[in-house]
Amino acid sequence: MPAPNAAPHIAGDTVWLTPRQCEMVALAADLGRNRFAPRAALHDREASFPADNYRDLRDSGLLALCIPQDQGGMGGDYTTFMLVAAEIGRHCGATALSYTMHVGATLWTGLVADALQMSSAQRADHEAHRATMRERIVAHGAVYAQPFSEGGAASAGKAPWGTRARRVEGGYVVTGKKLFATLAGAADFYGVLCTLDTPEATQRDTLFLAVPAEAPGLSVCGDWDPLGMRGTVSRNLHLKEVFVRDRGRLLPEGLYFEAAQRFPHMFATLAATYMGIAQAAYDFTVRYLRAELPGMPQVPRRMYPTKQHAVAQMRIMLEQARAMFLQTAREARVDPDADARLRLLASHHTVMENANALCTLAIRTCGGASMLKSLPLERLYRDSRCGSLMLPWTAELCLDQLGRDSLYDSGEGDEAIE
Ligand SMILES: Cc1cc2nc3c(=O)[nH]c(=O)nc-3n(C[C@H](O)[C@H](O)[C@H](O)COP(=O)(O)OP(=O)(O)OC[C@H]3O[C@@H](n4cnc5c(N)ncnc54)[C@H](O)[C@@H]3O)c2cc1C
């Protein structure tokens, strides 16, 4: 149950949403509240994958959220996705984060690909490949992961991927290692970024390939016992001479690099989970201070001015994050202008950092009992810590880019300044 005076939806006033968008967000809120929240503590404790939540996502149609309606999906756009993922994140951060990876694969191949220039042969190829992907999701409930990270400069967008794909008859042979692969062992397909193996390959030679989970040479390795986001089961992937058919190509050769440059909002999809966590920390605090949490002593604390000030501060931080989150969700488009790109980085940084700061303040305000493992706040606190660690837009790298791009125009160097 949300706090009595909390926004019923992350969107706040839903007047700007279409009735269809409202339905999809309400569906996510209902699943989150009634199914995912009651299971969250167990998956967190065991660091186990929430397969039960994925059954619900599959049955409700939400796995196909961003697949067009005429192909069996729900037809959600970027904004709808951000609101749906945030609603899920309000109840189970780990489910929201892994869901982001899955829906992200359908967004790259869907609305992002639609906005890119392709030759007619590339377009026909891409249509066929993504039809296969969409059919797998709609008809068979397939889940796609997005293991991009490798632990080097490539993950920060500053070097070619170390995972290499050699072209062979009918497809590619892929070799490499991916770290922190959310959905490891649970996904049906891994959307891997790799470099097409050519002499002097650059980032422009990035390939986006769907590797089937059962492909010979693919293995999940390493243990998983982290601080937070434990239900994402983000173990490592080893790929040793893995054959991937041509139809596993999720974007035409050479187009991932362009997509990443021209559609930067794709990297902000991770913020939705943490927006939900920020809202949850606020909701928890209000209910705690009103002594409305089930199983807790009925001792209200809302009459103390220190508590009221803390909640006021939390509300301000929440509204700052929400305002930026909603604005940038609505601004997502190909080729945003320089101002929108700076706003996007500022928004991403704000959501990630405010989520963790809100959880910290919530614990300080509610006190010792609130960090017991029988209550969700301590899990929210641990999960919230992970947001600003995620590449390519960690808190540090957001600041780096925001500072640099605020002071230098594209291509400009200091020699331009006399
Ligand atoms: C719960 C969880 C789930 C995840 N799921 C996925 C997933 O599904 N797919 C996926 O691809 N990744 C995933 N990741 C990985 C994530 O995006 C990062 O790649 C990972 O957390 C970075 O690990 P690191 O801090 O050890 O990286 P490092 O490369 O050691 O970076 C450490 C810090 O140094 C800074 N830094 C890094 N590179 C540079 C550079 N070139 N220049 C300047 N500063 C730099 C950054 O601020 C970074 O935070 C997940 C991570 C977590 C915590």
Structural class, by secondary structure, is alpha/beta
What's the tally of helices? 11
CATH class of the largest domain: Mainly Alpha
| Silhouette | globular
List of distinct ligands in this structure: flavin-adenine dinucleotide
The CATH homologous superfamily of the largest domain is called Butyryl-CoA Dehydrogenase, subunit A, domain 3
Mean pLDDT: 95
Number of strands: 7
What is the rounded distance between the termini? 61 Å
**Rg, Cα atoms, Å:** 21 Å
Ranges where pLDDT stays below 50 over 5 or more residues in a row are: none
How would you explain this protein's 3D organization?
It is a single chain. The chain has 418 residues and is of the alpha/beta class. It folds into three domains: 14-143, Acyl-CoA dehydrogenase/oxidase, N-terminal domain (Butyryl-Coa Dehydrogenase, subunit A, domain 1, Orthogonal Bundle), CATH 1.10.540; 153-258, Beta Barrel (Butyryl-CoA Dehydrogenase, subunit A, domain 2); 263-412, Butyryl-CoA Dehydrogenase, subunit A, domain 3, CATH 1.20.140.10. The protein has eleven helices and seven strands. Strands 1, 2, 3, 4, 5, 6 and 7 form a seven-stranded mixed beta sheet that branches. β2 and β3 (171-181) form a beta hairpin. α3 (78-89) packs antiparallel against α4, α4 packs antiparallel against α7 and α9 packs antiparallel against α11 (395-407). It starts with 18 loop residues before the first helix and ends in an 11-residue tail after the last helix. The mean pLDDT is 95. The structure holds flavin-adenine dinucleotide (FAD).
